[in-house]
Protein backbone atom coordinates (compact mmCIF):
# COMPACT_ATOMS: atom_id res chain seq x y z
CA UNK A 1 0.00 0.00 0.00
CA UNK A 2 1.17 3.50 -0.82
CA UNK A 3 1.91 6.00 1.94
CA UNK A 4 1.36 8.91 -0.46
CA UNK A 5 -2.25 10.14 -0.09
CA UNK A 6 -4.96 9.83 -2.71
CA UNK A 7 -6.77 12.95 -3.92
CA UNK A 8 -10.54 12.91 -4.33
CA UNK A 9 -12.08 15.83 -6.19
CA UNK A 10 -15.71 16.34 -5.19
CA UNK A 11 -17.60 15.66 -1.97
CA UNK A 12 -20.91 14.51 -3.40
CA UNK A 13 -22.12 10.99 -2.71
CA UNK A 14 -19.74 9.42 -5.29
CA UNK A 15 -16.62 11.07 -3.90
CA UNK A 16 -17.56 10.33 -0.31
CA UNK A 17 -18.49 6.73 -1.11
CA UNK A 18 -15.01 6.24 -2.61
CA UNK A 19 -13.37 8.09 0.29
CA UNK A 20 -15.13 5.96 2.91
CA UNK A 21 -14.14 2.69 1.19
CA UNK A 22 -10.52 3.78 0.82
CA UNK A 23 -10.32 5.05 4.39
CA UNK A 24 -11.74 1.76 5.69
CA UNK A 25 -8.99 -0.03 3.74
CA UNK A 26 -6.35 2.03 5.53
CA UNK A 27 -5.54 4.34 2.62
CA UNK A 28 -4.96 8.05 3.32
CA UNK A 29 -7.21 10.37 1.30
CA UNK A 30 -7.61 14.12 0.94
CA UNK A 31 -10.80 15.60 -0.50
CA UNK A 32 -11.23 18.84 -2.45
CA UNK A 33 -14.54 20.65 -2.87
CA UNK A 34 -15.25 23.87 -4.77
CA UNK A 35 -18.28 24.69 -2.60
CA UNK A 36 -18.33 25.67 1.07
CA UNK A 37 -19.84 22.38 2.15
CA UNK A 38 -20.23 18.75 1.12
CA UNK A 39 -23.15 17.16 -0.64
CA UNK A 40 -23.31 18.03 -4.33
CA UNK A 41 -26.95 17.53 -5.27
CA UNK A 42 -27.57 15.99 -1.85
CA UNK A 43 -26.75 19.37 -0.32
CA UNK A 44 -29.42 21.26 1.62
CA UNK A 45 -29.95 25.01 1.50
CA UNK A 46 -30.45 26.77 4.81
CA UNK A 47 -32.87 29.66 4.57
CA UNK A 48 -35.29 31.77 6.59
CA UNK A 49 -37.95 29.24 5.55
CA UNK A 50 -35.92 26.37 7.00
CA UNK A 51 -33.73 23.74 5.38
CA UNK A 52 -34.58 23.04 1.73
CA UNK A 53 -33.70 19.99 -0.37
CA UNK A 54 -33.17 21.77 -3.68
CA UNK A 55 -31.37 18.84 -5.32
CA UNK A 56 -32.31 15.20 -4.86
CA UNK A 57 -35.71 15.07 -3.19
CA UNK A 58 -35.28 11.45 -2.06
CA UNK A 59 -33.45 8.28 -3.02
CA UNK A 60 -34.29 4.60 -3.46
CA UNK A 61 -32.25 1.47 -2.74
CA UNK A 62 -32.47 -1.35 -5.27
CA UNK A 63 -28.95 -2.78 -5.09
CA UNK A 64 -28.30 -4.97 -2.03
CA UNK A 65 -24.97 -3.24 -1.30
CA UNK A 66 -26.54 0.18 -1.31
CA UNK A 67 -29.52 -1.09 0.68
CA UNK A 68 -27.09 -2.27 3.37
CA UNK A 69 -25.45 1.17 3.41
CA UNK A 70 -28.84 2.85 3.77
CA UNK A 71 -29.70 0.60 6.73
CA UNK A 72 -26.44 1.70 8.33
CA UNK A 73 -27.32 5.37 7.71
CA UNK A 74 -30.71 4.80 9.31
CA UNK A 75 -29.08 3.19 12.35
CA UNK A 76 -26.79 6.23 12.67
CA UNK A 77 -29.72 8.64 12.40
CA UNK A 78 -28.56 10.10 9.09
CA UNK A 79 -31.52 8.85 7.05
CA UNK A 80 -35.11 7.69 7.40
CA UNK A 81 -37.86 6.29 5.24
CA UNK A 82 -40.13 8.94 3.75
CA UNK A 83 -43.65 7.54 3.83
CA UNK A 84 -45.01 10.12 1.44
CA UNK A 85 -48.47 10.46 0.00
CA UNK A 86 -47.44 10.43 -3.67
CA UNK A 87 -49.55 11.56 -6.59
CA UNK A 88 -49.11 11.83 -10.32
CA UNK A 89 -50.47 14.14 -12.99
CA UNK A 90 -51.35 12.00 -15.99
CA UNK A 91 -53.42 13.21 -18.94
CA UNK A 92 -54.25 16.34 -17.00
CA UNK A 93 -55.69 14.37 -14.07
CA UNK A 94 -54.21 14.45 -10.56
CA UNK A 95 -54.46 11.12 -8.77
CA UNK A 96 -52.60 8.81 -6.36
CA UNK A 97 -49.41 7.32 -7.75
CA UNK A 98 -49.30 3.50 -8.00
CA UNK A 99 -45.55 3.59 -7.28
CA UNK A 100 -44.93 1.79 -3.97
CA UNK A 101 -41.13 1.93 -4.03
CA UNK A 102 -39.53 2.66 -0.64
CA UNK A 103 -38.06 6.15 -0.53
CA UNK A 104 -35.50 7.55 1.85
CA UNK A 105 -34.29 11.03 2.81
CA UNK A 106 -31.49 12.41 4.94
CA UNK A 107 -32.46 13.54 8.43
CA UNK A 108 -32.88 16.18 9.65
CA UNK A 109 -31.88 17.35 6.16
CA UNK A 110 -30.53 15.66 3.05
CA UNK A 111 -26.98 16.88 3.67
CA UNK A 112 -26.84 14.88 6.94
CA UNK A 113 -25.75 11.85 4.90
CA UNK A 114 -22.75 13.45 3.24
CA UNK A 115 -21.76 15.23 6.45
CA UNK A 116 -21.85 11.87 8.20
CA UNK A 117 -19.82 10.17 5.49
CA UNK A 118 -17.25 12.95 5.52
CA UNK A 119 -16.78 12.68 9.27
CA UNK A 120 -13.21 13.63 10.17
CA UNK A 121 -11.71 12.97 6.74
CA UNK A 122 -9.34 15.75 5.62
CA UNK A 123 -10.99 18.11 3.16
CA UNK A 124 -10.25 21.48 1.58
CA UNK A 125 -13.46 23.42 0.93
CA UNK A 126 -13.79 26.43 -1.36
CA UNK A 127 -11.10 24.99 -3.62
CA UNK A 128 -11.91 24.55 -7.31
CA UNK A 129 -9.42 22.22 -8.94
CA UNK A 130 -8.81 23.25 -12.55
CA UNK A 131 -6.01 20.92 -13.63
CA UNK A 132 -4.52 17.56 -12.72
CA UNK A 133 -1.14 16.52 -14.07
CA UNK A 134 1.24 13.66 -13.49
CA UNK A 135 4.98 13.91 -12.95
CA UNK A 136 7.43 11.03 -13.02
CA UNK A 137 5.75 9.28 -10.09
CA UNK A 138 2.99 11.40 -8.58
CA UNK A 139 -0.01 13.56 -9.39
CA UNK A 140 -0.30 17.28 -8.65
CA UNK A 141 -3.51 19.31 -8.58
CA UNK A 142 -3.75 22.98 -9.52
CA UNK A 143 -6.60 25.12 -8.21
CA UNK A 144 -8.27 28.23 -9.64
CA UNK A 145 -6.02 30.47 -7.53
CA UNK A 146 -2.90 28.93 -9.06
CA UNK A 147 -2.02 26.98 -5.91
CA UNK A 148 -0.54 23.48 -6.32
CA UNK A 149 -1.62 20.56 -4.15
CA UNK A 150 0.24 17.28 -3.86
CA UNK A 151 1.93 14.98 -4.31
CA UNK A 152 -0.76 12.30 -4.66
CA UNK A 153 -0.32 8.71 -5.72
CA UNK A 154 -3.77 8.44 -7.35
CA UNK A 155 -6.60 10.81 -8.22
CA UNK A 156 -10.35 10.16 -8.07
CA UNK A 157 -12.45 12.70 -9.97
CA UNK A 158 -15.99 12.63 -8.58
CA UNK A 159 -17.62 15.59 -10.33
CA UNK A 160 -20.34 15.99 -12.98
CA UNK A 161 -19.21 14.62 -16.35
CA UNK A 162 -18.53 18.00 -18.08
CA UNK A 163 -16.27 19.07 -15.21
CA UNK A 164 -14.55 15.69 -15.17
CA UNK A 165 -14.00 15.98 -18.92
CA UNK A 166 -12.15 19.27 -18.43
CA UNK A 167 -9.90 17.72 -15.78
CA UNK A 168 -9.11 14.83 -18.11
CA UNK A 169 -7.81 17.10 -20.87
CA UNK A 170 -4.34 15.49 -20.72
CA UNK A 171 -5.86 12.03 -21.27
CA UNK A 172 -7.83 12.33 -24.53
CA UNK A 173 -8.99 8.69 -24.57
CA UNK A 174 -10.71 9.03 -21.19
CA UNK A 175 -11.87 12.58 -21.93
CA UNK A 176 -13.58 11.51 -25.16
CA UNK A 177 -15.46 8.74 -23.35
CA UNK A 178 -16.62 11.06 -20.56
CA UNK A 179 -17.65 13.64 -23.17
CA UNK A 180 -20.34 11.16 -24.28
CA UNK A 181 -22.01 11.44 -20.86
CA UNK A 182 -24.21 14.45 -21.58
CA UNK A 183 -25.97 15.94 -18.58
CA UNK A 184 -29.27 17.80 -18.34
CA UNK A 185 -29.99 21.03 -16.43
CA UNK A 186 -32.86 21.65 -14.01
CA UNK A 187 -34.33 24.76 -12.43
CA UNK A 188 -35.45 24.18 -8.82
CA UNK A 189 -37.73 26.58 -7.00
CA UNK A 190 -38.63 26.63 -3.31
CA UNK A 191 -41.88 28.19 -2.12
CA UNK A 192 -42.78 28.90 1.49
CA UNK A 193 -46.35 29.55 2.65
CA UNK A 194 -47.37 31.02 6.00
CA UNK A 195 -50.26 28.53 6.31
CA UNK A 196 -50.17 24.89 5.14
CA UNK A 197 -51.77 24.28 1.75
CA UNK A 198 -54.97 22.27 2.01
CA UNK A 199 -53.85 19.16 0.11
CA UNK A 200 -52.97 15.53 0.81
CA UNK A 201 -50.16 15.62 -1.75
CA UNK A 202 -46.63 15.18 -0.38
CA UNK A 203 -44.98 14.60 -3.74
CA UNK A 204 -46.12 14.52 -7.34
CA UNK A 205 -44.73 13.17 -10.62
CA UNK A 206 -45.80 15.39 -13.52
CA UNK A 207 -46.14 14.31 -17.12
CA UNK A 208 -46.03 16.72 -20.06
CA UNK A 209 -45.64 20.13 -18.51
CA UNK A 210 -43.30 22.75 -17.17
CA UNK A 211 -42.77 20.77 -13.97
CA UNK A 212 -41.24 17.34 -13.67
CA UNK A 213 -41.76 16.86 -9.92
CA UNK A 214 -42.69 18.74 -6.77
CA UNK A 215 -42.73 17.83 -3.10
CA UNK A 216 -43.60 19.16 0.31
CA UNK A 217 -40.36 19.36 2.28
CA UNK A 218 -42.30 19.59 5.55
CA UNK A 219 -43.67 16.09 4.99
CA UNK A 220 -40.21 14.55 5.30
CA UNK A 221 -39.11 13.09 8.65
CA UNK A 222 -37.05 15.33 10.88
CA UNK A 223 -38.05 18.58 9.19
CA UNK A 224 -39.12 21.50 11.34
CA UNK A 225 -39.51 24.39 8.92
CA UNK A 226 -41.37 27.49 10.13
CA UNK A 227 -43.23 27.71 6.80
CA UNK A 228 -45.05 25.18 4.64
CA UNK A 229 -42.19 24.60 2.20
CA UNK A 230 -42.41 23.09 -1.27
CA UNK A 231 -39.67 22.39 -3.81
CA UNK A 232 -40.60 22.40 -7.50
CA UNK A 233 -38.35 20.97 -10.20
CA UNK A 234 -38.76 22.00 -13.83
CA UNK A 235 -38.29 19.58 -16.70
CA UNK A 236 -34.90 19.57 -18.37
CA UNK A 237 -36.55 20.58 -21.65
CA UNK A 238 -38.14 23.68 -20.11
CA UNK A 239 -34.91 24.49 -18.26
CA UNK A 240 -32.84 24.30 -21.46
CA UNK A 241 -35.22 26.76 -23.13
CA UNK A 242 -35.07 29.12 -20.13
CA UNK A 243 -31.53 28.55 -18.92
CA UNK A 244 -30.73 32.24 -18.52
CA UNK A 245 -34.15 33.43 -17.40
CA UNK A 246 -34.10 35.76 -14.38
CA UNK A 247 -34.74 33.90 -11.14
CA UNK A 248 -37.82 36.01 -10.39
CA UNK A 249 -39.37 34.93 -13.69
CA UNK A 250 -38.48 31.29 -13.09
CA UNK A 251 -40.26 31.48 -9.74
CA UNK A 252 -43.29 33.05 -11.39
CA UNK A 253 -43.52 30.38 -14.11
CA UNK A 254 -43.07 27.41 -11.78
CA UNK A 255 -45.37 28.86 -9.11
CA UNK A 256 -48.07 29.27 -11.75
CA UNK A 257 -47.64 25.72 -13.03
CA UNK A 258 -47.76 24.37 -9.47
CA UNK A 259 -50.94 26.33 -8.66
CA UNK A 260 -52.70 24.85 -11.71
CA UNK A 261 -51.86 21.28 -10.68
CA UNK A 262 -52.14 21.06 -6.90
CA UNK A 263 -55.93 21.21 -6.73
CA UNK A 264 -56.30 23.66 -3.84
CA UNK A 265 -56.06 27.44 -3.39
CA UNK A 266 -52.44 28.61 -3.63
CA UNK A 267 -51.76 32.09 -2.22
CA UNK A 268 -48.74 34.19 -2.96
CA UNK A 269 -45.77 32.62 -1.18
CA UNK A 270 -44.11 34.50 1.65
CA UNK A 271 -40.75 33.00 0.65
CA UNK A 272 -39.25 32.09 -2.73
CA UNK A 273 -35.88 30.84 -3.90
CA UNK A 274 -34.62 29.63 -7.29
CA UNK A 275 -31.54 27.54 -7.99
CA UNK A 276 -30.23 26.39 -11.36
CA UNK A 277 -28.51 23.01 -11.60
CA UNK A 278 -26.49 22.97 -14.81
CA UNK A 279 -25.68 19.27 -14.40
CA UNK A 280 -28.71 17.82 -12.66
CA UNK A 281 -28.86 14.36 -14.22
CA UNK A 282 -27.37 12.29 -17.03
CA UNK A 283 -29.23 12.55 -20.31
CA UNK A 284 -29.12 8.74 -20.48
CA UNK A 285 -27.87 5.97 -18.17
CA UNK A 286 -24.58 4.20 -18.76
CA UNK A 287 -23.18 0.98 -17.33
CA UNK A 288 -19.54 2.03 -17.04
CA UNK A 289 -19.29 1.87 -13.27
CA UNK A 290 -16.14 3.96 -13.44
CA UNK A 291 -13.97 5.50 -16.17
CA UNK A 292 -10.34 4.79 -15.35
CA UNK A 293 -6.72 4.44 -16.34
CA UNK A 294 -5.43 2.25 -13.48
CA UNK A 295 -1.87 2.26 -14.80
CA UNK A 296 -1.70 6.03 -14.43
CA UNK A 297 -3.82 6.04 -11.27
CA UNK A 298 -6.72 8.17 -12.47
CA UNK A 299 -10.39 7.32 -11.85
CA UNK A 300 -13.57 9.23 -12.70
CA UNK A 301 -16.87 8.30 -11.06
CA UNK A 302 -20.35 9.68 -10.51
CA UNK A 303 -24.03 9.05 -11.11
CA UNK A 304 -23.36 9.62 -14.83
CA UNK A 305 -21.37 6.35 -14.87
CA UNK A 306 -24.46 4.35 -13.91
CA UNK A 307 -28.15 5.01 -13.28
CA UNK A 308 -28.17 8.74 -12.64
CA UNK A 309 -29.65 8.11 -9.20
CA UNK A 310 -28.11 8.65 -5.76
CA UNK A 311 -27.67 4.88 -5.66
CA UNK A 312 -25.74 5.01 -8.94
CA UNK A 313 -23.40 7.68 -7.58
CA UNK A 314 -22.69 5.65 -4.44
CA UNK A 315 -22.07 2.45 -6.42
CA UNK A 316 -19.80 4.27 -8.86
CA UNK A 317 -17.70 5.65 -6.01
CA UNK A 318 -17.42 2.17 -4.53
CA UNK A 319 -16.34 0.76 -7.87
CA UNK A 320 -13.66 3.44 -8.23
CA UNK A 321 -12.34 2.54 -4.77
CA UNK A 322 -12.40 -1.19 -5.57
CA UNK A 323 -10.48 -0.74 -8.82
CA UNK A 324 -7.98 1.57 -7.13
CA UNK A 325 -7.33 -0.81 -4.23
CA UNK A 326 -6.95 -3.69 -6.67
CA UNK A 327 -4.28 -1.72 -8.52
CA UNK A 328 -2.44 -0.82 -5.31
CA UNK A 329 -2.20 -4.48 -4.37
CA UNK A 330 -0.41 -5.42 -7.60
Describe, in plain words, how this protein is organized in 3D.
The chain is an alpha/beta fold and 330 residues long. It has 2 domains: 6-34 and 126-180 and 285-328, FAD/NAD(P)-binding domain (3-Layer(bba) Sandwich); 46-107 and 183-282, Polyamine Oxidase, Chain A, domain 2, CATH 3.90.660.10. It has 8 helices and 20 strands. The chain has helices at residues 13-24, 64-76, 111-118, 161-167, 172-178, 236-241, 247-262, 310-328, and strands spanning 6-9, 29-32, 45-47, 50-52, 79-81, 86-90, 93-96, 104-106, 123-124, 129-134, 139-143, 148-152, 154-157, 183-193, 203-206, 211-216, 228-234, 271-282, 291-293, 298-300. It has a 7-stranded mixed β-sheet with strand order 7-6-15-16-17-14-18. Helix 1 (13-24) runs parallel beside helix 3, helix 1 (13-24) packs parallel to helix 8 and helix 4 (161-167) runs antiparallel to helix 5 (172-178). The longest helix has 19 residues, at 310-328. The radius of gyration is 20 Å and the shape is elongated. The model has no long low-confidence stretch (mean pLDDT 95).
Topology of helices and strands:
Blueprint: E1 6-9, H1 13-24, E2 29-32, E3 45-47, E4 50-52, H2 64-76, E5 79-81, E6 86-90, E7 93-96, E8 104-106, H3 111-118, E9 123-124, E10 129-134, E11 139-143, E12 148-152, E13 154-157, H4 161-167, H5 172-178, E14 183-193, E15 203-206, E16 211-216, E17 228-234, H6 236-241, H7 247-262, E18 271-282, E19 291-293, E20 298-300, H8 310-328
Parallel strand pairs: 1-2, 1-13, 2-9, 6-15, 13-20
Antiparallel strand pairs: 3-4, 5-8, 6-7, 10-11, 11-12, 14-17, 14-18, 15-16, 16-17, 19-20
Amino acid sequence: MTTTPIAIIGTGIAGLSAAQALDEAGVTVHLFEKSRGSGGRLASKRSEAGSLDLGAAYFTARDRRFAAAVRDWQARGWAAEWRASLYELRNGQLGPSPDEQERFVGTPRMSAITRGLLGELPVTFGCRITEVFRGAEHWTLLDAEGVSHGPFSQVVIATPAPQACNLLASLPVLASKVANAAMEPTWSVALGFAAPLSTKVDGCFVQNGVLDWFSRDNSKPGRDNPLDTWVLQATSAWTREHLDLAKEQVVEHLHGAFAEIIGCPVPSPSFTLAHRWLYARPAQPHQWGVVADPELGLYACGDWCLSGRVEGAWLSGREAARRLLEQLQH
